[in-house]
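Dear colleague,

Following up on yesterday's call, I've attached the two folding results inline so they're easy to grep. Please treat them as preliminary; we haven't cross-checked anything against experimental data yet. The first protein's sequence and structure tokens come first.
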Amino acid sequence: QFGDIFKYDVTIAISENTESLEELQDYINSNQYINSSETLMVKTVDAEKNGETIASVSMSVFQNPEVVDDYITLRTMDDHTPLELTDDGVIISQKMSNVLKAKAGDSFSVVNSDGSKTELKVTGVTENYAMNYIYMTPTLYRNVYGEEPSYNMIYGELPIQTTQWEDLLTQ
């Protein structure tokens, strides 16, 4: 699915000890070895339907939802109609849709690390067969959780995809 669904080349984990997210973003954006980057929050939650835990899920909240398509293709499985993140609900992966038996318009709950439950409305189902994913906007995250997303990941695109570039980045 890399290249077709997942279009980013590198992931950079942001340490909890990072003092300035803005400085880190500026450094990455000025790096000659990275064409573009996007900051996001990724966390694992459990999905629940009708009171039963169904699956472990990777929740992604992009800092700038308008650029999601530069890094991940959100589209329907059947006719590849593009899907857009909105503040009205979440987009879930096809695999998660199958496991939850959920479609656009349905709701399900996620169990957070503190044991609390949050109900989410599905606004779209995106092509992805590998894992269970939830995608949402930062505004929806704030509205649902009452707090700012804690950004902990950066996706990046390399100018040229060669082993030489990858070796330079890891030095």
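Below is the second protein, in the same order (sequence, then structure):
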Amino acid sequence: STYYEYEAFKNCKTLSTVLFQVNSYISANDGSIFAGCKNLTTFEVDENHQEYKFNNNLLTSKDDKVIYLAPYGYNFGEYTIDECYETIAEGAFSGVGSLKKLIINHKLVIGKNAFEGCHGLVSVSLPSESIEILDYAFYRCGSLNEVINLDSIKVFNEYVFCRYSFIVRGI
């Protein structure tokens, strides 16, 4: 088996596609594996892979419940998380600068560092129902100035929102 480790492809500026063959996996994702790969727009996944598939421009679980990784260079702009997903994994969107507006309309778990360093992110719309957001999920999102339905977070974990000021709507 092949495991993609911490910073394995960091700053590979010409990398545009990554193929996950049958026995290739992300060993631990903190968002650093493909950090700085500004041309990475696609993941290809072998159809016989037991765990992953490429769906909605994301590396996801075969059962569509977990978002594992967003391609660093894909132009997300305004993005709505599909309601089939129950978890956004640790570091899944970390450093994706093209993400401008994030819309989440359903209950799910946002993993540690999931959106850390998304410098282009200006607005996050959370669902009105309870949501779990883990440590550092939106850490270093310097452009973030609006969080809608902030009261839907029942437990504020460590540094969920840190290093910016924003307008809160819906509380």
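For the second protein, one point worth flagging: DSSP finds no helices and 16 strands in the chain.

Best wishes,
A.L.
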